[in-house]
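So, can you check?
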Amino acid sequence: MTGLEEVFRDEWGRVLAALVGYLGDFDRAEDATQEAFTIAAERWPTSGVPDRPGAWLVTTARNRAIDRIRRERTLAEKIHLLPAPEAVMDEFDDTLIKDERLELIFTCCHPALPPEGQVALTLRALGGLETAEIARAFVVSEETMKRRLSRAKAKIRATGIPFTVPGAHLLPDRVDAVLAVIYLIYNEGYRGRVDLGAEAIRLGRVLAGLMPDEPEAHGLLALMMIHHARRHARFSGEDLVLLDDQDRSLWDLRQIAEGRAVLDRAFALGGRGAYVVQAVIASMQTRQPVDWPQIAALYRRLVELTGSPVVELNHAAALAQAGEPAAALRAVDRLDLDGYLYYHSTRAELLRRLGRTAEARTAYRRAIELAGSAPERGFLGRRLGET
């Protein structure tokens, strides 16, 4: 990514948020923001990036939006609703721009929107990704992604979803929804789409900066950073590499250290929620030797917090790593996760360790049927061949 592209990606969410808050119309705001960025792309390579690029972009976008409305005669009567004189670029003070990205995050992640719409709109509005980029990340056509974005914005208009931070009585649940969307984006990237993982971390940084006293926001950011630091070691060519076999020299130790510092911040804020616990587990997995009994205990705590059968599966895997494969298999066999790839791959591994070869091979075959990527299928196929 070039320096100019980096500035654009960093500033897109802030500029769009300012315009949505100013105009009250998502589509108009996006058009004006895009126009401002197009002008910047033409001028900045020769004139240089302004000292306050965000202020320059917001001012340009606002002025373009006003000009466009003035040109549309059918909307002429609405001009008086935009009480903003055109600003002189060199005199504009960016400290006067309210950062409305938090309002935009809650708008994009409103529960009235379908999950796929929340994800797409968050990546477009806050991450600044082009529609084609989002489409490639989720392996759908660009037209399909355009429709998702259009439906989400139409839903915002039709239902009057407010551009605001929820009231105190709604905030905890709504924060959870925002965190879940960002984590969903990250998990898509963690399955091999590294750029999407990086975008989730970018969004996590924005949220943690906008909500500095929210421990779970810091916990999620720490979790993503620590996992992402190991991304280059998770694959060898097209082959998936498990934690115990990873080349630690490929880990990004600086990012791990930064993630641990963010985790310390979450703890200082009293964070003991699900994302904080997961971040602690991720951090402990980067230590040498790995304390699997302690990690199993943390997964037990995570089961209590979430009630998730997938977390129970992870708890069982940690028990096996701690030297209790029989107890782990008993725990796995109590779960109802027949359609879940990692249920069968975990069960296969436990059966293999316990010498129950025929059952292990059956479980590996079922896991291969459910595998969604070539690295997963390749890894499971090799395991099956070794069993």
Summary: Residues 26-47 form the longest helix (22 residues). DSSP finds 18 helices and two strands in the chain. The CA atoms of residues 281 and 295 lie 6 Å apart.
